[in-house]
Amino acid sequence: MTTMGPIPEPAAGCTPAPPAALTADQQTKYDQFLAEVRAWESLPASSAKGAESTPLDDNERLWMTRECLLRYLRATKWNLAQSSTRLRSTAVWRREFGTEKLSASYISPENEKGKQVQLGFDKSGRPCLYLLPQNQNTKPGPRQVEHLVYMLERTIDLHPPGQESLALLIDFRNTSSGGTPGLGIAKQVLDILQNHYPERLGRALLTHLPWYVSMFLKAINPFIDPVTKEKIKYNEPLTDHVPAAQLMKASGGDIDFKYDHDLYWPALEKLAAERRAKRVERWEKAGKVIGESEIYLWGGEESSIGGGQAAGNAAVTDAAVSIGAAAPVEAAPLSNAAVVTPPVHAPGANGDAALADGVAKLDVKDGEPVKPAA
């Protein structure tokens, strides 16, 4: 099989597991969190001290889905205060970073050699994002980080309904131990994942590891959280995780994929833009509410939550008040200290080990406060 562009759908039978039902206590906390977030009217425009607050726009309200709120609750072991701080921090980071403003034409020079490729889905329907540092073609700079975030957002655009996580396929082949800027930059995107994309890592598949990365991983293995450890696989046959029909031949699959930027890049943008446009259309049709179902928005077989917006708002408020919580009020201003900005890691000889360390830190333990990556 030959392809020059992204694959639109997972292979037959490769579907995500249904989400676990919420307990009564979890449902109550979600209702309280939703009531609070629906009361937000504005947020700081940046993390700068004294930054002006500006109203939430439609893109931000659309981003704050039911599943988005639940991801933050799960990441904090259902701690409402921490969930609120983290969600607000990410919303401010998205404004400051400009996630909604990154364009295909601006990012295009970064991917001319195909160092990042979204191609295929794993056996659980997770979209696969390849990181191929051997195809590095630019010098370190802000646009390398923007490129990685752009590709992450496009990968999320292509999620099948009901799937919230992605699979990272990191191939170290033909990568030297020194002077590899791509690996240092890749570490930054993993820091961003940890702080601003909670619960998004479903699988990290590391292949062709150099000896120095393998030694480092053995040293830190006892300290890796068991849940995270289960998600990271080293030098395993990728066909154990990804159907051969959706995996590059270079990685052991059946797809004869040759990266051609002039063909792949517009095809990826076209497919992602079509998916985004349909989401916006569904969201607007359903009432443009915060807390909409991602399954509905991504085209799945689930009814809209926002069809009865007024009734839904009243129900959420009643649920919060019934257990003794105050009705939704304007949230307190976000302190600048709460905004977590991922540090910039200089690329270099330790890039490979730093990347592997970053993967190990992607998912913090439930209940642990999120800390900036070291």
From TrEMBL:
Highest taxon, organism lineage: Eukaryota
A molecular function GO annotation: phosphatidylinositol transfer activity
CRAL-TRIO domain ranges (all copies): 119-259
Region (Disordered), start-end ranges: 1-20
A Pfam family that the UniProt record links to this protein: CRAL_TRIO_N
PANTHER family associated with the record: GH16843P (PTHR45824)
Name of this chain's protein: CRAL-TRIO domain-containing protein
Organism name: Ascochyta lentis
